[in-house]
Every structure is written in structure tokens, then in C-alpha cells.
Predict the structure.
Amino acid sequence: WPMGLGKTLGAIYVMVHLKEWAEEWDAEGWLHPELKRRLNLPTLVLCPNNIKGVWRGELQKWAGLDELDVVVLDANKENFRFGLAYLAAGMASVAVTSYSTLRARIKDGIGNMEWGLVITDEVQSIINSQAQQSQAAYSLKCTLRLGLSGTPYTNKPDRLHGALAFLQGYTVAETDYQGKVKAYLRRTPIW
């Protein structure tokens, strides 16, 4: 979706309603207890550095989260660790960080956390499986992944490989992810 068509709002809707849907499914007896636990884990928003504050504001505005429910993880090591501890203690439900911070701090605890949902804004930032940024994203432990992009891929659909591999849950260790994605692209038209 191009800019201004509601990608952020759509992602926030999914985030908010996943927990509601989990409660409904659980009440109906349709939800395995482990999946319920995993859907209630915190959400991580990965985005370009210059829009972390925008995401925080939109989460507060549209999801009804207060200032303490959203942790912005920045590159400062002490602030980053404090933010993760705050999340691990259940004091916040959403973390917002940039791709560059994720890459720099993957060994500082974020790679060990479990996430219910990872929202990747500008998912095309994960295009090269050999890049440290992509490897950091692939290593995240999460139940669901949602990718947002307003960038058209019509001229170079091969650039989709890294993003689709991430969204489908492949890891860097899976050497044939490109072959799997190419097979998928041949079967599925891209609009």
C-alpha cells in the first residue's frame, strides 16, 4: 500500500484484535493453551529509525495504549536493557525499535525474547539474507509476523525473497529459502 492508505492503522488493528480473538477462541475451546500464551506475548514493531516516535504516537492514539505501555528501544545500551527488562516484567505490551538498533543489540537480550507479533514496517529492509540486519530479523522468536511496505516490487520481484522468507518464518540457516520463495512466486501472481 502506498503512503497514507492505512498500513500502520491496519497493523495496529491486527495487534489489538489478536488478543481479543484469542480470548474468544479460548472461550469456545478452540485455542490450544500454548498458542494462547504465545498470542499474549508482547508485540515488537521494527521500523526505520526516523519513525519510531510516529509509531509510538499512533499506538497510543489508535490502540489506546498509554505512555508506559509502549517502550521505544534505542541504541543506548543501558536504555535498551532497561526497556527489555520493563517488557519482560510485563509492564509494557509493545516495543518499538529500528532495524539498525535490532542489528546492533541482537545479542543484548532482544534475540532471546519471545514475541507474540512482530510488525515490520518497510519490510523491504530485509532483502539480503547475508546482511546483519536481515540475520538479526530472522533470528527473532515470534508467533506471527506482519510485513508492511508501500514500495512496489513490479520491476524486481526477486527483491521480495528476503522479506517473504522472513514473513514465512524461514531462517538464515535454511539455505534453499530462495528456491522455496521462487517456487511460491511462480505459482502466485503478484499485483
User: Anything to note?
Assistant: Residues 57 and 67 are 9 Å apart (CA to CA).
